[in-house]
Specification:
Helix content: 25-40%
Number of strands: 8
Number of helices: 9
Bound molecules: pyridoxal-5'-phosphate
Structural class: alpha/beta
Radius of gyration: 17 Å
Largest sheet: 8 strands, parallel
């Protein structure tokens, strides 16, 4: 076994164990392998072990990888690309044309642009609203009290499919933030009419266990699969 396939297997086992402890089915938890600043070869290696979901943060870097791997999109086991970085308005077209998922939606203007640019021949793009659960000034995301209004706006856009919520809690805040996200996820679900609402995207290398204990069903793991990133 290679290094990456061993690490992937190790992460999958951590997910399975965390799911079991939480009384949940691990099959309902999707692993997004975060490949930002890692090579095409590393992605290929992970794909060859059966990993299908990949997360990227930087548009230009991602587009090159998506193009180089486009054959993998049309196989029986299609690769899926998740955009998980901050969204600049002038990059919305490239994102709408190339990604299957966007986890970091936080503004109406960006939602409208993604909708306008999503090509007609593609399925609607899956989106999660990013929540600033730590309520920090400097962090991206919508404050919890703003989530319902943005969710209702997104459902008026036919080329977006609203799937749920995403967060990146500060490590020191995890014990509070993960349960708060779980509660907010359920609250929004009960307050509106969101037919595709099924996704709570949270948990990274250092905190996937606590995220899964609190209802995460997408975890986004980079370092523990691919090793440290080049800076
Ligand atoms: C980089 C990144 C990850 C992966 O982080 P690791 O600590 O390397 O697992 C997950 N989510 C987001 C939004 C990221 O930017």
């Amino acid at each position: 076994m290679t290094n990456i396939s061993e690490k992937l297997e190790n992460v999958r086992q951590r997910i399975a164990l965390a799911a079991r402890k939480a009384g949940r089915d691990a099959a309902g938890i999707r692993l997004v392998a975060v490949s930002k600043r890692h090579s095409l070869d590393a992605i290929r290696e992970a794909y060859d072990t059966g990993q299908l979901d990949f997360g990227e943060n930087y548009v230009q870097e991602a587009l090159e990888k998506i193009d180089a791997l486009k054959i993998a999109r049309h196989k029986d086991h299609p690769i899926r690309w998740h955009f998980i970085g901050p969204i600049q308005s002038n990059k919305t077209r490239a994102i709408a044309e190339s990604f299957d998922w966007v986890h970091t939606l936080a503004r109406e203007k960006i939602a409208r642009r993604l909708n306008d640019y999503r090509p007609a021949h593609m399925a609607p793009v899956n989106v999660c609203i990013q929540v600033n659960i730590d309520k920090e000034e400097s962090k991206s995301g919508v404050v919890p009290t703003g989530v319902l209004a943005l969710a209702e706006f997104v459902t008026t856009l036919p080329r977006l499919r609203l799937r749920g919520l995403m967060a990146i809690p500060q490590p020191e805040n995890g014990n509070k933030a993960f349960p708060s996200m779980h509660a907010l996820y359920k609250e929004i679900q009960s307050e509106g009419d969101f037919p595709h609402w099924d996704t709570l995207s949270m948990g990274m290398s250092a905190d996937l266990e606590i995220a899964i204990a609190n209802g995460a069903n997408i975890v986004r793991i980079g370092t523990d699969i691919f090793g440290p990133r080049e800076t």
